[in-house]
């Protein structure tokens, strides 16, 4: 059996883990990245596309395969093309539509009894520092901060003038919570019926993280383009609340977006100075921060006592499902 994925994001980790679990591996990549991926001997098959329609055809062309999605899938191919993927997908493909809509994402968190930042439907209601977010997995590109209504209106007008957005329904205006970012990486196994914490990271963002190094004030506008990730180990007393939120989220998605979360997901959070966890976003698939832990995180060792990155954990779940004739439980 082949495990396949799109060449980007966390594809190396996914395919390396699949090979460790004795699967055949295939990558679907554009021509510009083909030579890069051919450096790695754990990839068995390379399918090169010239356009995104061809990428979908390649995905569907591999017999006896399971496709593993990651954070670049919707951003690259778009929902229309992704809906044309016919091979089994690891995880819940019904979540893709929810992930591509910021407002629907926040509603799932709120229904899960998870603390979230306040969102503003109207510019006129804004009375504090806010961050404006764009739809989809753009790695933070286009996000901006606004201290008041005037800055907010100017920033939104810029997005409209540059045709980055077509209308206000495409953005979310969210309270900017002051605290330490912590992105909790989880894995829900419907086979073992448990939530596992697989790691925690912080995104390393340009240019906001560079600006922090300047010893004087400046007028440079901060941007939030993700360029890398930094590992984090949380104070242990924080973890029970993080697990509570993860459990709640799993149950909510079972009811609202059946069959619910399958495999990796992330609760992207800020921890305040009174150690409250405020979740400002979720990812329903593997996140790039898991690439930090190719040999396993401090948390994954607590479950498996062996090197277990999330890519390998996906493949392990598939192996367990195959052994128990439950492949339909972990794929859609």
Automatic annotation (TrEMBL):
<protein>
    <recommendedName>
        <fullName>5-formaminoimidazole-4-carboxamide-1-(beta)-D-ribofuranosyl 5'-monophosphate synthetase</fullName>
        <ecNumber>6.3.4.23</ecNumber>
    </recommendedName>
</protein>
<dbReference type="GO" id="GO:0000287">
    <property type="term" value="F:magnesium ion binding"/>
</dbReference>
<keyword id="KW-0464">Manganese</keyword>
<keyword id="KW-0658">Purine biosynthesis</keyword>
<feature type="domain" description="ATP-grasp">
    <location>
        <begin position="93"/>
        <end position="323"/>
    </location>
</feature>
<dbReference type="Pfam" id="PF06973">
    <property type="entry name" value="DUF1297"/>
</dbReference>
<keyword id="KW-0436">Ligase</keyword>
<dbReference type="InterPro" id="IPR010672">
    <property type="entry name" value="IMP_biosynth_PurP_N"/>
</dbReference>
<feature type="binding site">
    <location>
        <position position="229"/>
    </location>
    <ligand>
        <name>5-amino-1-(5-phospho-beta-D-ribosyl)imidazole-4-carboxamide</name>
    </ligand>
</feature>
<comment type="similarity">
    <text>Belongs to the phosphohexose mutase family.</text>
</comment>
<dbReference type="InterPro" id="IPR013815">
    <property type="entry name" value="ATP_grasp_subdomain_1"/>
</dbReference>
<dbReference type="InterPro" id="IPR009720">
    <property type="entry name" value="IMP_biosynth_PurP_C"/>
</dbReference>
<dbReference type="InterPro" id="IPR011761">
    <property type="entry name" value="ATP-grasp"/>
</dbReference>
<keyword id="KW-0547">Nucleotide-binding</keyword>
<keyword id="KW-0067">ATP-binding</keyword>
<feature type="binding site">
    <location>
        <position position="9"/>
    </location>
    <ligand>
        <name>5-amino-1-(5-phospho-beta-D-ribosyl)imidazole-4-carboxamide</name>
    </ligand>
</feature>
<dbReference type="GO" id="GO:0006189">
    <property type="term" value="P:'de novo' IMP biosynthetic process"/>
</dbReference>
<dbReference type="InterPro" id="IPR016185">
    <property type="entry name" value="PreATP-grasp_dom_sf"/>
</dbReference>
<dbReference type="Pfam" id="PF06849">
    <property type="entry name" value="DUF1246"/>
</dbReference>
<dbReference type="InterPro" id="IPR023656">
    <property type="entry name" value="IMP_biosynth_PurP"/>
</dbReference>
<comment type="pathway">
    <text>Purine metabolism; IMP biosynthesis via de novo pathway; 5-formamido-1-(5-phospho-D-ribosyl)imidazole-4-carboxamide from 5-amino-1-(5-phospho-D-ribosyl)imidazole-4-carboxamide (formate route): step 1/1.</text>
</comment>
<feature type="binding site">
    <location>
        <position position="72"/>
    </location>
    <ligand>
        <name>5-amino-1-(5-phospho-beta-D-ribosyl)imidazole-4-carboxamide</name>
    </ligand>
</feature>
<dbReference type="GO" id="GO:0016879">
    <property type="term" value="F:ligase activity, forming carbon-nitrogen bonds"/>
</dbReference>
<comment type="function">
    <text>Catalyzes the ATP- and formate-dependent formylation of 5-aminoimidazole-4-carboxamide-1-beta-d-ribofuranosyl 5'-monophosphate (AICAR) to 5-formaminoimidazole-4-carboxamide-1-beta-d-ribofuranosyl 5'-monophosphate (FAICAR) in the absence of folates.</text>
</comment>
<keyword id="KW-0479">Metal-binding</keyword>
<feature type="binding site">
    <location>
        <position position="205"/>
    </location>
    <ligand>
        <name>ATP</name>
    </ligand>
</feature>
<keyword id="KW-0460">Magnesium</keyword>
<dbReference type="GO" id="GO:0005524">
    <property type="term" value="F:ATP binding"/>
</dbReference>
